[in-house]
Write a structure and sequence with these properties.
The protein is built from 22 helices and 20 strands. The protein is α/β, with parallel strands linked by helices. 38% of the residues lie in helices and 24% in strands. InterPro entries: AAA+_ATPase, ABC_Ni/Peptide_Import, ABC_transporter-like_ATP-bd, ABC_transporter-like_CS, Oligopep_ABC_C, P-loop_NTPase. Keywords: ATP-binding, Cell inner membrane, Cell membrane, Membrane, Nucleotide-binding, Translocase, Transport. Its main location: membrane. It comes from Sulfurivirga caldicuralii.
Length: 545
């Protein structure tokens, strides 16, 4: 194909098609261009081909996938025709990539300084003192505190937000022309997400970078992108500047994405005033450090004197940053964390905190949990039907003969939008959204009155997230089940919660109805959380009331 002469375009993808060995198409003729100094967002739900497009540009397709046709131009260089040795000189030097999960992308047995230094040595020939000075400079630029010390740390010694900053430093180490950011803020809480977005915007403007930003978060798109392309089933169905995309989307799929991304309604207060679960003075303190013979012990007050009430048929959302104590509190209410102090009064009848494991077992059927990572929560060696039946058998709920239990499992799978024949499959055979539905079915199997939902939508795209929220709302309306919904995503609160409790450093700092907390937050920390949310979300929330 003739050379493309476009001084504004730094990366151009033309008719790019990728398929499986059997000919099944993955990408179906992708066309777009990335201009100098712009942020171009590639959006769509999981499985639409966004990340595969990024890997195709980097020539890092998974084994077995093949290029069918197309061209990828980096200025005057066509990448697909290059020998691998030449492509290796371009990766990291002219095109760099930030991956979605830094803990998987970083080498756990190398210090962060060694990993950043490796790119500097390979592409720029920096060694010794000059390399160390450049690593320190990069860590300072991305906001890592005490970089002279932290460059000798390993990835596990850093927080999630700090690891993402290290990934950005590695990507920018050799001053590339193009940066590909693949879901760099997924599963980060709103405060850390805002920090990472601000950092990327600042570095992009300072360096004049062209950024291909892959995401499913419409709030992030509104915050950072100049132009947007929407992917659906391996095709780009719409391209537009960001303002036009948000105000007047043309394709029905784009319209549905935006509808799923934003809060639609505020739920009415729960009709009942009595308590289903009342927690009083809950404390979970951990003793850390010091070794066997040291007297210096550090006390971590993960949950520090929390009171909360959950009513029959209502959803109480528990929000806060990572490390605020949300999940620890949830596990304490389930008695999966040992309490330091406090009462857990259930149905105004019994203090669950005082029961030993044998006495607690009959009550476990009433309080169930849906975990954040449904894949890790299921035994990979058991079929999903066996996993769902397990609670029924252990807690002696419902029929105890196998045939009747299979009928019950089939009913539950249909209730959560799956098929009865799915019960004989294994967890790895399901998508993320399907696995989350299986987690809901397993929780429902023992007919609970309260379900603790621990970040159940944090890693899901907007479409699947909306489906899971709608499913939970429907089940609540039909069965009167209550939820403690733990989340850091403020945009979903009007769709799922009746009341909100805001948690900071182990304490509840503010509590109230959803509209009260989102419209007129009283505590500075709540105000900070809302300010960190993408502007699109803040505007949509304010328009609800």
């Amino acid at each position: 194909m003739a050379q493309q002469d476009d001084t504004q375009s730094i990366l151009k993808v033309e008719r790019l098609a990728v398929s499986l060995p059997d000919g099944t198409p993955i990408l179906k003729g992708i066309d777009f261009e990335l201009r100098r100094g712009e942020v171009f967002a590639l959006v769509g739900e999981s499985g639409s081909g966004k990340s595969m497009t990024a890997l195709a540009i980097m020539r890092l397709l998974p084994e077995g996938l093949r290029y069918d046709r197309g061209c990828i131009y980096l200025q005057d260089t066509e990448l697909l025709s290059l020998p691998e040795a030449a492509m290796q000189r371009i990766r990291g030097r002219r095109i760099a990539m930030i991956f979605q999960e830094p803990m998987s992308a970083l080498n756990p047995v190398m210090t962060i300084g060694e990993q950043i230094g490796e790119a500097l040595k390979l592409h720029l020939g920096l060694r010794g003192r000059k390399q160390r000075e450049r690593v320190i400079q990069l860590l300072q630029e991305v906001g890592i505190p005490e970089p002279e010390t932290r460059l000798d740390w390993y990835p596990h010694q850093l927080s999630g937000g700090q690891r993402q900053r290290v990934m950005i430093a590695m990507a920018l180490a050799c001053e590339p022309d193009v940066l590909i950011a693949d879901e760099p803020t997924t599963a980060l809480d709103v405060t850390i997400q805002a920090q990472i977005l601000d950092l990327l915007k600042s570095l992009q403007r300072k360096r004049g970078l062209a950024v291909l930003f892959i995401t499913h978060d419409m709030g992030v798109v509104a915050e950072i992108a100049d132009r947007v392309a929407v992917m659906y089933h391996g095709e780009i169905v719409e391209q537009a500047d960001t303002r036009h995309f948000l105000i007047d989307p043309e394709h029905p799929y784009t319209q549905q994405l935006l509808k799923n991304a934003l809060p639609l309604r505020a739920l009415k207060p729960a009709p009942k005033n009595q308590s289903l679960l009342e927690a009083k003075g809950i404390k979970v303190w951990f003793q850390q450090g010091g070794g066997w013979f040291s007297r210096k012990k550090r006390i971590t007050r993960a949950v520090d004197g929390v009171d909360l009430t959950i009513r029959p048929g209502e959803t109480l959302a528990l929000v806060g940053e990572s490390g605020s104590g949300k999940s620890t509190l949830g596990m304490a209410l389930l008695r999966l964390n040992e309490l330091t102090e406090g009462q857990i009064l259930f149905d105004e009848q019994v203090d669950l905190a005082t029961l030993n494991e044998r006495a607690l077992r009959p009550w476990r059927r009433h309080i169930q949990v849906i975990f954040q990572d449904p894949f890790a929560a299921f035994n990979p060696r058991m079929t999903v039907g066996e996993s769902i039946r397990e609670g029924m058998i252990t807690l002696k709920v419902g029929p105890q003969d196998k045939a009747s239990q299979r009928e019950r499992v089939a009913e539950l799978l249909q209730k959560v939008g799956l098929q009865p024949e799915h019960m004989d499959r294994y967890p790895h055979e399901f998508s993320g959204g399907q696995r989350q539905r299986l987690g809901i079915a397993r929780a429902l199997a023992v007919e609970p009155r309260l379900i603790i939902c621990d970040e159940p939508t944090s890693a899901l795209d907007v479409t699947v997230r909306a489906q899971i929220i709608d499913l939970l709302n429907t089940l609540q309306e039909e069965q009167g089940v209550s939820y403690l919904f733990i989340t850091h995503d403020l945009s979903i609160l009007p769709r799922i919660a009746h009341r909100v409790a805001v948690m900071q450093q182990g304490k509840i700092v503010e509590e109230g109805r959803v509209e009260q907390i989102l419209r007129v937050p009283q505590h500075p920390y709540t105000q900070q959380l809302l300010e960190a949310a993408p502007k699109l979300v803040r505007t949509a929330v304010s328009d609800l009331w």
